[in-house]
Amino acid sequence: MLITFDRAVGGSTIATIERRDGVTLALPGYDRKHRVPHDLAHAVTECELAMAGGVFGSIAGGGVFANMRVLAGRERHDARDRSKRLLAANKSSLGVAECVAGVVHAAVEHGATSSAVADARRSWGVFSAEPVPWTEPQLTAAISRLTVLAGDFARDGHLRFVWPDRLTSPVPVRVEHRLGRRGRV
Q: pTM for this structure?
């Protein structure tokens, strides 16, 4: 999947997403006050930390968020149902992605890299009592990559980001319910 980040009118960003199924989507950013696009922080963080259930893995799998719109291509006949199932299945992962991408974004936006690992641990603690699944070098790599890409975006106002196929979230199988002898609902 190819994600292209562009500076939008008014200073925000827009991500144009070309999925493998031939559908092209627009994802508007709401980040006029930030130097670093928040959706770019998601893409980098989720990619570096192998988060297939985050924002961009969900989109790659067929998820479409309410603020997105189709620009080109033909969606499947069951696209809405598939998207709804996928986003519901990834609800927890999307929450984790939002928190961790927020930490990485803040580290780069405000130059607070020294506290980022501790901040990520605190954020993770909201979701789980288990140990943080990412190492300090992984978090540092995400911060470093976002720093470089944010600089490229600031200079050019345009950035192409390739989302790896291996991080495409699978669509959950549709569960059909049976009611007694009458059959399926």
A: 0.90
